[in-house]
Amino acid sequence: MKAIALLALSTLLSTTYAETIHAVTETTLYSYLKEGQVAGPATELLKLNLQRAGLTDYNIHLYPWARSYEIAQNRANVLIYPIVRTPSREKRFKWIGELIKTQYHFYKLKARKEIIVNNLSDAKRYTIGVIRNDVRQDYLQQQNFTRLTISAQREDNFKQLINKQIDIIPLIDKDAEALCQQLAFDCAKLERIYTLNGISNGLYIALSKSTPDPLVEKMRSAFEQLKAEGLVKKIIEKNQ
Fold it and tell me: What is the pTM of this model?
C-alpha cells in the first residue's frame, strides 16, 4: 500500500511538471513587446531562469497589469514579473528572486507651480494617476488617498499628466525617462517632487500561490545560481 501511495505521488509530481508554465507581465522598462515578441531584460532573465531550472514548456504573455495580476492570483503554474514585493502581497505569491531595487517618486509638470508637496498628506489635495491593482494604488488607498484616477496602462496615466487631467503620478525614474521617450515628451518639463519611501522595494519574479512547491524550489535554486554568477545584475542593468 505504501509503495502504491509513493508511486501515485511520483506520478502526480511528474504530471505537474508536465503542465505548461504561463508567464505574465505588463509593459515596463524591463518587459515589453519587440517585433511581436515579449522581450526586455527581465524577460531575458526569466527565460534563462527557466532554462536553468530545466523547464522548457512555457509561454509568456503581456497584458495590462490588472489582468496579469488576476491571472497570477487565481491559477497554478503562473509566473508574474516584474512585481513589487510588499507585506500585503507576501502570502499571495511564492517569491523566486529579486531583479532590482526600486524607488518611487511623485512627478508633476514643472510648469504647475501651484502643486506643492512637502509631505505625504500634502499630496492628498491633488488628483493622482495610478494603475489598476498596482502597488501604488494599493499603498495610496491604504494611506486614505481618495482622489485617485485609475487607468489600465501606464501610458494612459502619463498622457493624462501631460494633458493636465491629473496633477501627479508616482513613477520610478527610469520609467519616467522611458515614457518620455515613448511619447516624444520632453522630460525636462517634468519635476520630481516627493519620494515615496513607504512603497520603495524590489522588483521580483514570483509564482502563483497554488503552484506546487517542487517547481517553486527548482526556480528558486536556478535563480540563486544566476545571482551567484552575477548574471542577474548584468542582464537587468545592461540596458540602464
Answer: 0.81
